[in-house]
């Protein structure tokens, strides 16, 4: 019996991006697929794009929401498949057969959470591989396919203000033994959304460290500042900064008792 998957697209005022995503989803060769679109009450013509394709869209709604995670939760509640994948407006699958390729692979019954590396587009619109790692929290939804039952166990995404750690709160609860990295790269990430604002993934990982008291607040600030400085400075300056700030190359306090 084929595995079933619900692909959920969250959109707000992005008709062009949505059209690309819809076309990518609808051309997938995998047949056991449900497609859900959650629109936040767009006013730019996005609704017209949905209505033009509504005979091929399984379910859709258009109404105001409290942000991206509220919209995602609506999609989860509407989903009827075993597996979920979020492919938001502007993002596309790597090719027409990637879902079929993922599910044709050997997935042990104990695995509930699949993820891959991801393609990002550079300024020339060339695909560049960005490495993803569950253990460091460097994940984005477009490279993940996971079982809906995880939400039955761990709850829906926490709806929070703009500085959000809902992904990491959810991911942190998933047992490592139920996670598997797969070879097929699932998606092409266009960028430009909230997850591209100032190395969002790393910022949220630091925030989560504070929430779970793995770092102090100032430890988080120091680590993130060092990361930004390290990216900007030539190598000969890094040793100088290291000596005078007392930081190692990962931004940790070398004088800390936990180091």
TrEMBL record:
Q: What is its EC number?
A: 2.4.1.-
- Matches recorded under SUPFAM superfamilies: Nucleotide-diphospho-sugar transferases (SSF53448)
Tell me the enzyme class: transferase
Q: Which is one Pfam family of this protein?
A: Glycos_transf_2
The source's domain of life comes to Bacteria
Q: Which UniProt keywords apply?
A: Glycosyltransferase, Transferase
Per its UniProt record, what CDD domains does this chain match? GT_2_WfgS_like
- Annotated Glycosyltransferase 2-like domain ranges read 6-101
**What would be an example GO MF term here?**
hexosyltransferase activity
Return the protein name: Glycosyltransferase, group 2 family
Q: Which species?
A: Xylanibacter ruminicola (strain ATCC 19189 / DSM 19721 / CIP 105475 / JCM 8958 / 23) (Prevotella ruminicola)
Q: What is the lineage of its organism?
A: Bacteria, Pseudomonadati, Bacteroidota, Bacteroidia, Bacteroidales
């Amino acid at each position: 019996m084929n595995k079933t998957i619900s692909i959920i697209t969250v959109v707000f005022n992005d008709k062009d991006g949505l059209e690309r995503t819809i076309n990518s989803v609808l051309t997938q060769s995998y047949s056991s697929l449900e497609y859900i679109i959650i629109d936040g009450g767009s006013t730019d013509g996005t609704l017209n794009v949905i209505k033009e394709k509504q005979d091929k869209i399984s379910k859709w709604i258009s109404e105001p929401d409290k942000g991206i995670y509220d919209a995602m939760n609506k999609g989860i509640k509407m989903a009827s498949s075993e597996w979920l994948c979020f492919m938001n407006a502007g993002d596309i699958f790597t090719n027409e057969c990637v879902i079929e390729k993922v599910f044709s692979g050997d997935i042990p019954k104990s695995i509930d959470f699949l993820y891959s590396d991801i393609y990002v587009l550079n300024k020339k619109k060339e695909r560049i591989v960005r490495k993803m790692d569950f253990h460091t929290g460097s994940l984005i939804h477009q490279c993940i396919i996971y079982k809906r039952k995880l939400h039955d166990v761990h709850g829906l995404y926490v709806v929070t203000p703009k500085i959000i750690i809902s992904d990491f709160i959810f991911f942190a609860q998933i047992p490592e033994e139920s996670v598997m990295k797969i070879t097929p790269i699932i998606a092409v990430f266009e960028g430009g959304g909230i997850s591209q604002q100032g190395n969002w993934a790393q910022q949220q990982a630091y925030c989560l460290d504070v929430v779970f008291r793995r770092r102090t607040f100032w430890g988080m600030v120091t680590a993130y500042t060092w990361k930004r400085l390290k990216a900007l400075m030539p190598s000969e300056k890094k040793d100088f900064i290291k000596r005078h700030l007392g930081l190692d190359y990962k931004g940790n306090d070398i004088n800390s008792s936990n180091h």
